[in-house]
TrEMBL record:
Residues 38-48 have a biased composition (Basic and acidic residues). It holds the Pfam family Dyp_perox_C. Its cofactor is heme b. Keywords: Heme, Iron, Metal-binding, Oxidoreductase, Peroxidase, Signal. Residues 36-70, 296-317 are annotated as: Disordered. This is Dyp-type peroxidase. Residues 224-407 form the Dyp-type peroxidase C-terminal domain. Residues 67-212 form the Dyp-type peroxidase N-terminal domain.
Amino acid sequence: MRRRTDPEEGPSRRGLLAATGAAGITGLAAGTGAGHAFADRRTEEENARALAPSRARAGDRDGLPPALLAPTPSQVRLVALDLRAEPGERAREAARRVLRTWSREIGALHGHGLGARVEGAPTLGLFPASLGVTVGLGASLLDRIGAQDRLPPHMEDLPAFASDRLEPAWCGGDLLLHAGAEDPVVLSSAVGHLVGAVAADARPRWSLPGFQRSAAAAQDPGATPRNLMGQIDGTVNPHASDPVFGPQVLAAHPEPALAWMDGGTYLVVRRIRMLLDDWYSLDPVDREAVIGRRLSTGAPLGGGAEDDLPDLSATGEDGTPVIAPDAHIRLAAPGNTLGARMLRRGFNYDLGWDADGVRQAGLVFTAWQADPRAGFTPVQRALDEGSDALHRYVRHEGSALFAVPPVREGRPWIAHDLLPG
């Protein structure tokens, strides 16, 4: 149960073949003698086994979009786009073209990579690297195409929160590309290809790259990753095999007007800048108190392991709570948020320093849920009302909400039930 987002799955045949192929090529190229060749081959085989699970993430499974498949990719890029066409029938036709084009190109990229689509692509010689692309639709898109009656109430605007310092240029969007892969060249090339393929109909609004540590660098590839604050980030997430996964993550829409989203999910994206200089000026003990977890293990204060349930009633010898009243995990706990839960996936971003010497780095926070009104919103409200200690060290600078339709076999393109043609 160490990393609840990533089920323990064996590598697929394709993943094993890809990994073995890479090992064989490297071994042949490096072999200068029998002993060296054997040592190199053994090292490459060990690396291949470590990388096989991440290389095995490909395609659709149980109707889930690639972004919800496991293991979580080490590299992601999110791009929000707006339609160029004026609202009405022209926007409707443009949206249909975009979704039809993306469905065709994404299928080809998942299957064969960009090298099979573009001559001289920068990915020549590279495996698809578990590329997975997920598409989201913003509420503004349904407004543009005149489908307000098909808009789920789950897509109502998020309320304002105390930690918001939102920049309009980093918010919203008609459409979203959420792409993940194990290689930055594969990822960058695929996203550039998909954005370029619809350039006549849609223009980028904002984009943000994200990353986690790679499987190759991790001493324990199954461990929950850390964010740039040094905190283990992503503990106690719903697992796809858990009975609660469906009710918490996947939307239920029996009503005919909203059937296009039945079995889909709603994605909240937050661009959260971390004030890292201020954060690391704190003593480690104070950093632990802000979150309510140990830096070394991720265990809740007073607990022994990362997955231990926080004891919110525990007090120290002086009678003060072991987990402070304003600690992040206390305020975000289900008991303090009417049982709100969501699948949280965070990725680091680091854009360097701006002209004033301020570091632009933090968290690409993504929350996947059946209904944001019962997931993200009550959690964020509880953090506001409790004066979350973490708010002093973060700024929410970008925000967006997207509907992610289910993956349905036999449909000619994404969201075909919403935009047939």
